[in-house]
Amino acid sequence: MTVRRAAELLGAARNGLALTGAGVSAESGIPTFRGEGGLWKRFDPVKVASIDYFLADPSAYWSASKERGRVALGASPNPGHAALAELETAGRLAAIVTQNTDGLHQDSGSRRVIELHGSGRTVQCLDCGFREPRSEVQARLEVEMPPRCRSCGGTLLKPTVVLFGEAMPQAAVQEALALARAADVMLVVGTSLVVYPAAEIPLVAARSGARMIVVNAEPTPFDDLAEVVIHGRSGEVLPEIARLIVDG
Ligand code: NAD
Ligand code: ZN
């Protein structure tokens, strides 16, 4: 049985690493980009999630971001997040590298979380650098569009996420690559593995000798590289794996 095989591999890990994507938060009610119910079927990503679009028209950006922000801020971790936190506590995962910006891994108790695409919980003014919690800006969106910087009054308030056309946070990328090189087991969950350099992480881990487990609702381009592939929901599969490891 594949869940049992995944538990065997991960249960023996001394330097396990997880890479997570939007799929792990789908069961928390946050829509993924691609795949079933994916946002990109409704919006053109390069338009609404690019730095050029943001700079050209912050109001349009925030109008599109308003609904997503409300959903993400109201979301709670699901059993998949909890299982990953448990695996870290049990010493089977050294860290989680995530493409998510929702902060749910941290809410669930995971300690070492590397955010490749930044965090949506904070907003920063591109003019003066002033930072505020997204929750405070979110509350203002009803009466102020685009939201204004509380420090300089400017209108270039941007969530601290990596938009298309922006550079990746180099320290996070380097840390993730170093973890991938050192990993003995690579657990890939809820990501379509089409966004680089995030998709590079499992490739580097595999090249360095890590054994790979993929848990995803649908096939991914890396299934052939994995020793165990489980097509299912992370909120159901990960707790089963964790239970087998932690309870024996
Ligand atoms: P993606 O949307 O491209 O792919 C999500 C994958 O998860 C799909 O292959 C889908 O089949 C799978 N999936 C859906 N529900 C699942 C479930 N319950 N269990 C397991 N798998 C499930 O996501 P991505 O690869 O992370 O790339 C999207 C980009 O968008 C990322 O860069 C990320 O920064 C951003 N994003 C973040 C969030 C978030 O923070 N929660 C949400 C949407 C998009
Ligand atoms: Zn400012």
What features would you describe in this structure?
With 248 residues, the chain is α/β, with parallel strands linked by helices. The chain folds into two domains: 1-30 and 77-117 and 167-248, TPP-binding domain (Rossmann fold), CATH 3.40.50; 36-74 and 120-161, SIR2/SIRT2 'Small Domain', CATH 3.30.1600.10. Helices cover 39% and strands 17% of the residues. The chain contains eleven helices and nine strands. A six-stranded parallel β-sheet has the order 3-2-1-7-8-9, sandwiched between helices. The model has no long low-confidence stretch (mean pLDDT 94).
List strands and helices in order, with pairings:
Blueprint: H1 2-11, E1 16-20, H2 23-26, H3 45-48, H4 51-56, H5 58-74, H6 79-89, E2 95-98, H7 104-107, E3 113-115, E4 118-125, E5 131-133, H8 134-140, E6 157-161, H9 170-182, E7 185-189, H10 200-207, E8 211-216, E9 228-231, H11 234-246
Parallel strand pairs: 1-2, 1-7, 2-3, 7-8, 8-9
Antiparallel strand pairs: 4-5, 4-6
Nicotinamide-adenine-dinucleotide binds at residues 21-23, 25-27, 30, 32-35, 38, 99-102, 117, 190-192, 195, 216-218, 233-235.
Q: State the fourth-level CATH superfamily of the largest domain.
A: TPP-binding domain
* CATH class value of the largest domain: Alpha Beta
Shape: elongated
Distance between the termini: 16 Å
Task: Quote the average pLDDT.
Answer: 94
Number of strands: 9
Tally of helical segments: 11
Share in helix: 25-40%
Ions and ligands: nicotinamide-adenine-dinucleotide, zinc ion
Order of helices and strands: HEHHHHHEHEEEHEHEHEEH
Please compute the radius of gyration using only Cα atoms.
18 Å
Walk across the major sheet and give the strand order.
Answer: 3-2-1-7-8-9
Assigned CATH architecture of the largest domain = 3-Layer(aba) Sandwich
- Spans where pLDDT lies below 50 across 5 or more residues: none
CATH topology type of the largest domain: Rossmann fold
- Biggest sheet record: 6 strands, parallel
The percentage of residues in β strands lies in 15-25%
